[in-house]
Amino acid sequence: MKLWGGRFTGSTDSFTDHFHSSISFDSRMYRQDILGSVAHSKMLGKQGIISQQDSELIQKTLLEILSDIENGKVTFDEQAEDIHMNIETILISRIGDVGKRLHTGRSRNDQVALDIRMYLKDEIKNIQKLLTELIETLVSMAEKNIRTIMPGYTHLQNAQPVTFAHHLLAYTEMFKRDNERLDDAYKRTNVMPLGSGALATTTYPLDRDFVCRELGFDSVTLNSMDGVSDRDFVIELLSVLSIIMMHLSRFCEEIIIWNSQQYKFVEMDDAYSTGSSIMPQKKNPDMAELIRGKTGRVYGHLMSMLTTMKGIPLAYNKDMQEDKEGVFDAVDTLKMCLPVFTRMIGTMTVNKDNMYRAAKGGFMNATDAADWLVKHGVPFRDAHAIVGRLVLYCIDHSKSLDELTLDEFKAESDIFTEDIYNAIKLETCVNSRTVAGGPSESYIKKLIAINKDYLNGR
Ligand code: ARG
């Protein structure tokens, strides 16, 4: 008989059991479910709601069940619907009537809300650790590439020279923000709902603060109807995970471009590439493509959860069981993508010469030539026009700006002197941008130090 079977005369259809059972995916919360129950039964004993002796037997048996599960000695039963009732059923099968006292003053509605919060708290920390490892890798790659000049793009058109370190550290900023967003999501996940009951608490004198402390939560939920029906923290986490995937995906897109035959800025290590079944010459950046592809799947889970929640009246409704598969899959996806990505970029070869060569083409120093004129008294708009004409001249004569003779410069403006050549050197272009946020060696060293402080603080 089902744990809730008293009011029923007929049995449920077995196909229906299969349909509404969640054990296939919520069994992964067994640890949280058991630790939550241990804290609950400890509190019931302390409050005299059940006897100390019963409380202790329940706690001890629950911990035995936990180790049995961890040692693969327990098989769950679809008939028992979900992880909560599976564990309660096992408890009752081991200690009979005493086990039946555990669920006093509790509902599966506040129980599941508790379990999923506990589960996601752990996973947020796991993901933050992976994110921090990625930031570490980026910072150490940046350190090795402070002088690696490469093209900076806007519209994927050559714009101004930057360095590979500058480019890498742009992503570090994104991932640091992601880490902060996870801190923030954690705060609102770290609120303890047990004691909300089905929706209206209970008549037993529960000590919710005790359970809160036992389980390491910050505070208790303040409204029982909200306590059982809030899944904002799931949606917030899915949003943050979506943003992280978006960042990874942009980075993957760049790596795919850089790894192409046309760019050859980087080469993926064999461990992170695959071949083609038909074209023998191929070495494809599949891992980067797969991470880019999996972004859609995480976004999908966010959309699906927002949609599931949008029409649900207070308080608990079974629709909410749909919260788990999506967020679990999103968490699993991040836990695979982040380390693969970190290792993939950490092992790729950086072709500094190719980056430099690419930075030399496309007149990326044109702004600097114009700025040189401005510093010599020419109004910026005029300087822009002069250099524009020089670029046109260069295109017609298949030259770059630094290949022009001084006479050719002077033909457009007699203000030009010999030191224009130094001003338009790529190294000068990069290193004279000493403004905070820029690519200069002096500033990038500061930014690396800032990032190291950040890493030491995590
Ligand atoms: N498996 C359910 C879920 O994941 C647990 C809560 C069930 N509560 C209920 N009243 N049916 O949401």
Strand order of the largest sheet: 1-2
The beta-strand count equals 6
Largest sheet: 2 strands, antiparallel
The structure class reads: mainly alpha
CATH topology group of the largest domain: Fumarase C, Chain A, domain 2
| Number of helices, where a helix is a run of at least 4 consecutive DSSP H or I residues | 19
CATH class of the largest domain: Mainly Alpha
Ligands: arginine
Question: How far from one another are the termini?
Answer: 50 Å
What is the general shape?
elongated
* CATH architecture identity of the largest domain: Up-down Bundle
Written overview of the protein:
The protein has a two-stranded antiparallel ribbon. It has a two-stranded parallel ribbon with strand order 3-4. A two-stranded antiparallel sheet has the order 5-6. The protein is built from 19 helices and six strands. The protein is elongated and about 100 Å long. α8 links the parallel β3 and β4. 61% of the residues lie in helices and 5% in strands. The mean pLDDT is 96. The protein has helices at residues 14-20, 23-26, 30-46, 52-70, 83-95, 108-143, 164-189, 208-214, 224-229, 232-258, 286-309, 323-347, 352-360, 366-375, 380-396, 406-412, 420-423, 426-431, 441-456; strands spanning 149-154, 157-163, 191-192, 219-220, 266-267, 349-350. Arginine (ARG) binds at residues 22, 26, 82, 108-109, 112, 316, 318, 320-321.
